[in-house]
Amino acid sequence: MSSSEIDQLNRPTESRSDRARPGFGELASDALRYWEPRRFLYNLALLAVVIVHFCAAWPDSRDDLVPDTLFHLFLLAVMANIAYCAAYAVDLFVQFSGQREAWAKWRWTVLVTGIVFAAIIAHFITMTILAGPHGG
Predict the structure, then answer these.
(1) Spatial separation of the C-alpha atoms in residues 109 and 90, rounded to whole Å
(2) What is the pTM for the complete model shown?
(3) Long-range contacts at 52-58 (CB < 8 A, ≥ 24 apart)
(4) b/e for 85-112, b at 16 or more Cβ within 10 A?
(5) One pLDDT digit (tens) per residue for the chain, 136 residues
(6) Largest CB tally within 10 Å, which of 3, 34, 87, 126?
């Protein structure tokens, strides 16, 4: 066997996924198309948690309708939406790993897990906020 034939055998082979591997822009666009329409569902779930707590604590919760409480809730909503962006890191990591086709079938599990986790956090924080100084 000649040295050129040995070099050919030792050369890394190009896999099918290497040839067709999408770039960052395409993967980021795919992530945006998936996650951004679902952000509404995420926010709706968290809003539902807050409204249920507010209604359950009625009429004491009426005393919590003050600017400071509303500012706290606004801050928490912003923080929740920043936390939602963690899904992008997971999504892009898995897509870059070459598991793009399998990921498309299972990424909804990250969405559901994230919504449930955020709703639990919202539950405890809302309970604390509505308990407030009046002990409701």
Answers:
(1) 12
(2) 0.76
(3) 53/123, 53/126, 53/127, 53/130, 54/126, 54/130, 57/130, 57/136
(4) eebeeebeebbeeeeeeebeeebeebbe
(5) 666 665 554 454 444 555 577 888 998 999 999 999 999 999 999 999 999 988 887 888 788 788 888 898 899 999 999 999 999 999 999 988 888 888 888 999 999 999 999 999 999 999 888 776 554 4
(6) 126
